[in-house]
Each structure stands twice: as C-alpha cells, then as structure tokens.
Design brief:
The protein is an alpha/beta fold. The chain has three helices and nine strands. It has helices at residues 7-25, 40-47, 100-110, and strands at residues 2-5, 30-36, 54-65, 72-77, 88-96, 116-125, 137-142, 147-148, 164-166. β3 and β4 (72-77) form a beta hairpin. Bound molecules: xanthosine-5'-monophosphate. Xanthosine-5'-monophosphate (XMP) binds next to β5, α3 and β8.
Amino acid sequence: MKQLLSADQISRRVAELGTQLAADYRGRPLTVVGVLSGSVVFLADLIRCIDVPHQIGFVEASSYRGRTTTGSELTVSVDRLPDLTGRDVLLIDDILDTGRTLASLKALLAARHPASLRTAVLLWKDGTQQVDFMADYHAFRIPNAFVVGYGLDYNNDYRHRPDIVILEPQDLPSIGLRPSRPD
Ligand code: XMP
C-alpha cells in the first residue's frame, strides 16, 4: 500500500474547502447532502469547516453491474433526504470516477426543486470520466488508481483509515480490484 494523501494534507485541504464554501453560501439556505456511505468521513469533517448555518441530509446509492451490459444500474434510496424545495443544495461524494453516480444523483435532486444545486467531491480521479459531468468543487485531483481510506472502502474495509492509500493488486492476492458499491 502506498500513501497518496496524509491525514494532515487532507485536513488542511478540507478546512480550505470549507472556508471557500462558507464564503460562497453565506446568507443562503444551504443543505449539504452526502452520498452514503463513502462520503460520511469527508462530510463530517467538511461541515465543521463550513462556518455558516446549514442543514444536512443523505442519499444512499448502490450500483449493480449487470452481466450482459457494460454499464451499471444505480439504485438510490431517498429515505433520509429532507425537503430540498427552495434550498441551495450541495451534493457531496467521496470520489468522482466515471461520473455516473453523481450525474444521476444530481438529476434526481434537481427534480426536488432546489434553488441551486452544486456538487463537491473529495477526490477527482483524473482521466476516467465516462459521462460529461464535472463536480463544482473538489479537494484533490488524483491519478487513476484504486484508493481507500477516509471513508473510501474495499469490500467495506479500510474506511476508518485517517489517510488515503493506493490499494494495489498485490495487497489483495487473488481478488480482482474493482470499484464497488454499496459503499
Ligand atoms: P462513479 O464511477 O459513478 O463512481 O463516478 C463513484 C463511486 O465509485 C466508487 N469508487 C471507488 N471507491 N476507491 C473506492 O473506494 C476508488 O478508487 C473508487 N473509484 C470509484 C465509490 O463508491 C464512488 O462513490
């Protein structure tokens, strides 16, 4: 395992992003919506750095990769989503990879009549986007590698790590690496 981002680097950058968001949303009815489960660590740290009043909510997304298709089907649960009508919504996820998850979730939240709707990700994986979508905010741009820690998982493990590390095939012998949801 190779460390990509230390806990210290993450906390400094998250604080910086929080300050920027506080400036951008000052005086606005902000609701931060986290995508479960990968965004929870990022969201918990970030909201404490957004020094303006705001609400939070969650959506749960899991993707099912069909056997006969190259794409994946996204299943979404909105049970923990508050009313977003007239709110400035900031949708938060751990990582932007193909872009499919956030593009779909953004369309879904747009139908709830927010006053505005933007997205923020902790990590933007460079060069892997498959749809025309870009997050409005990102904390770090990273190379195309499978990463875990700070909320990101492999088979629901490693989320508790305070840093972000690259997981390489030799770290998990005999198991093929593939981004997975539910996360
Ligand atoms: P898309 O491709 O829809 O994917 O942008 C977003 C979701 O895919 C998972 N993902 C990863 N999870 N390490 C992880 O732990 C990674 O490197 C990685 N790349 C994608 C993740 O669930 C993310 O929300």
